[in-house]
């Protein structure tokens, strides 16, 4: 894994996601980028023109910028019993692309419930928010949360909803995250 604040030359073309707008952004092979954040499967880089973009997990792993992405649909080790705490732990590997804090400690997860399904697996229902209603990264983080939850043993279905009520505020950030951000 490449450390943050290092320049890296891309060894392939890839489509990234603009931060915070969420629009696709094409990066070309040979382009120099500055790695600003490598957390979980998420890698954020700054382009030569100053744009912040998030590389998708497959491209960032293929270029050696992050660990291989979680298999997602593999649903963890089937020999392990299901525990909702493991879903929350998996969500702690989903990071905001601008703030180096996971979505749980950032206070973006409003609800995480499990319902047992007839086949013995569990349906996970997650309500999450974004730091701002106009955040274009909502669908990306929603997908990341779904992949993370599906990676847990005993999970058969995942439903992630973006919610805006109540509005997110800094009081939702965990004390540990506030300390990390220098807010305490």
From TrEMBL:
Q: Which domain of life is it from?
A: Bacteria
- Which classification does the entry list for the species? Bacteria, Bacillati, Actinomycetota, Actinomycetes, Jatrophihabitantales
Organism (species): Jatrophihabitans cynanchi
Name under which the protein is recorded: Iron-sulfur cluster assembly protein
Q: Which InterPro entries match?
A: Fe-S_Maturation_MIP18, FSCA_dom_sf, MIP18-like
What Gene3D superfamilies has UniProt attached to this entry? Fe-S cluster assembly (FSCA)
**Span of domain MIP18 family-like:** 85-161
Please list the coiled coil stretches.
Answer: none
């Amino acid at each position: 894994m490449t450390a943050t604040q290092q320049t890296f030359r891309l060894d392939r073309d890839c489509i990234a996601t603009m931060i915070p707008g969420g629009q696709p952004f094409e990066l070309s092979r040979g382009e120099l980028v500055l790695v600003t954040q490598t957390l979980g499967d998420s890698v954020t880089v700054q382009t030569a023109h100053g744009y912040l973009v998030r590389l998708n997990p497959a491209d960032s792993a293929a270029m050696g910028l992050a660990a291989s992405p979680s298999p997602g649909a593999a649903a963890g080790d089937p020999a392990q019993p299901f525990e909702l705490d493991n879903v929350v732990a998996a969500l702690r590997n989903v990071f905001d692309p601008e703030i180096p804090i996971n979505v749980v400690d950032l206070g973006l997860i409003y609800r995480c419930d499990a319902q047992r399904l007839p086949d013995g697996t569990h349906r996970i229902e997650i309500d999450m928010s974004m730091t701002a209603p106009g955040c274009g990264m909502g669908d990306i983080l929603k997908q990341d949360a779904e992949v993370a939850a599906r990676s847990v043993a005993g999970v058969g279905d995942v439903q992630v909803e973006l919610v805006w009520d109540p509005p997110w505020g800094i009081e939702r950030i965990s004390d540990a995250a506030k300390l990390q951000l220098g807010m305490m």
